């Protein structure tokens, strides 16, 4: 069942409420994490908690817990939900102020929210024939230049995603100064000349947990890997394009701007890495 933890209290999600002067509501002044749960187990929990701590430090919110306390709380939330395949959402805001102003108020406590909701789609296994490659377009990356912070201020990402879906496609691949950055909520990979390529970590992209895992699996599979800038033209020359995120895992892209990527179907590198991913998650 769906469940929420809000500032020390367990409750139904629909009952969880925050004051209107919470800075997360007023300013988007907070960070978040999304953690998949497979077979009742929080996947890559330590890595997600570490990134949460880094995001909090970046926006100068004092972390209300250490990593072990966060992990214990997440595991308790999963247990209370009794869900097998689910999504854990963590959000921490600066807290509730006495008035609305840009200057950070002193002496307030962060607001802590954790929700667990069912995600039966996460039960997918390798060779699932329902995998349909995404269709995507390219768009200018007009977001702010601190993309490595997993902030709750997602207006730009929402504008991008909705502009893409309004054109009848699944999402957009973002371009800044002629170079690929990421998608609206996922990291981007291409296969070109037999090499598996993704943009290097920087302040312009999210440092994806799934991204790192897929790179590790590629190295273990003896796939040639490069972390380097990707020019927009390489999207059209690539034999495969794929995206990664906690909710999507590793997903193939079949068309970009109405041009087929390879044959428009799931490619051999994606199939190999997806198989490795499914084996890895089942072993955790």
Question: What features would you highlight for this structure?
Answer:
single chain; 284 residues; alpha+beta; D-amino Acid Aminotransferase, Chain A, domain 1; D-amino Acid Aminotransferase, Chain A, domain 2; 2 domains; nine-stranded mixed sheet; six-stranded antiparallel sheet; globular
- Quaternary: single chain
- Under the CATH scheme, which class of the largest domain? Alpha Beta
Q: Could you list the spans in which at least 5 consecutive residues all have pLDDT below 50?
A: none
Which structural class fits the helix and strand makeup? alpha+beta
Give a written overview of the molecule.
There is one protein chain. With 284 residues, the chain is an alpha+beta fold. The protein folds into two domains: 3-123, D-amino Acid Aminotransferase, Chain A, domain 1, CATH 3.30.470; 134-283, D-amino Acid Aminotransferase, Chain A, domain 2, CATH 3.20.10. Helices cover 28% and strands 29% of the residues. It is built from seven helices and 15 strands. It has helices at 23-27, 45-58, 67-81, 155-166, 209-220, 232-237, 268-283, and strands at 3-6, 9-11, 30-38, 41-42, 86-93, 111-118, 134-140, 171-176, 179-183, 187-192, 195-198, 225-227, 240-245, 249-256, 259-260. The strands form two sheets. Strands 7, 8, 9, 10, 11, 12, 13, 14 and 15 form a nine-stranded mixed β-sheet that branches. Strands 2-1-6-5-3-4 form a six-stranded antiparallel β-sheet.
């Amino acid at each position: 069942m769906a469940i929420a933890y809000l500032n020390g209290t367990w409750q139904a999600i629909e009952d969880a409420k925050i004051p209107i002067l919470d800075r997360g509501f007023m300013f988007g002044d907070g960070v978040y994490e999304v953690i998949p749960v497979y077979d009742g187990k929080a996947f890559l929990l330590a890595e997600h908690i570490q990134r949460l701590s880094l995001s909090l430090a970046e926006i100068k919110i004092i972390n209300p817990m250490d990593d072990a306390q966060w992990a214990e709380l997440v595991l308790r939330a999963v247990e209370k939900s009794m869900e097998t395949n689910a999504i854990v959402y963590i959000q921490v805001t600066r807290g509730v102020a006495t008035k609305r102003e840009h200057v950070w108020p002193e002496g307030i406590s962060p607001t802590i929210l954790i929700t667990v909701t069912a995600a039966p789609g996460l039960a997918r296994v390798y060779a699932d024939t329902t995998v349909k490659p995404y269709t995507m377009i390219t768009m200018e990356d007009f977001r702010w230049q601190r993309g490595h912070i997993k902030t709750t201020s997602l207006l730009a990402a929402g504008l991008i995603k909705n502009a893409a879906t309004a054109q009848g496609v699944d999402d957009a691949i973002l371009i800044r100064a002629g170079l690929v950055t990421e998608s609206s909520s996922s990291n981007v990979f291409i296969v070109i000349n037999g090499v598996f390529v993704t943009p290097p970590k920087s302040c312009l992209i999210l440092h994806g947990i799934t991204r790192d895992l897929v790179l590790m699996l590629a190295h273990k599979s003896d796939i040639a890997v490069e972390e380097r800038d990707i020019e927009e033209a390489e999207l059209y020359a690539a034999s495969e394009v794929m995206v990664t995120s906690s909710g999507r895992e590793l997903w193939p892209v079949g068309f970009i701007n109405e041009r087929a990527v390879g044959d428009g179907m799931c490619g051999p590198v994606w199939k190999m890495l997806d198989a490795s991913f499914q084996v890895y998650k089942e072993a955790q």
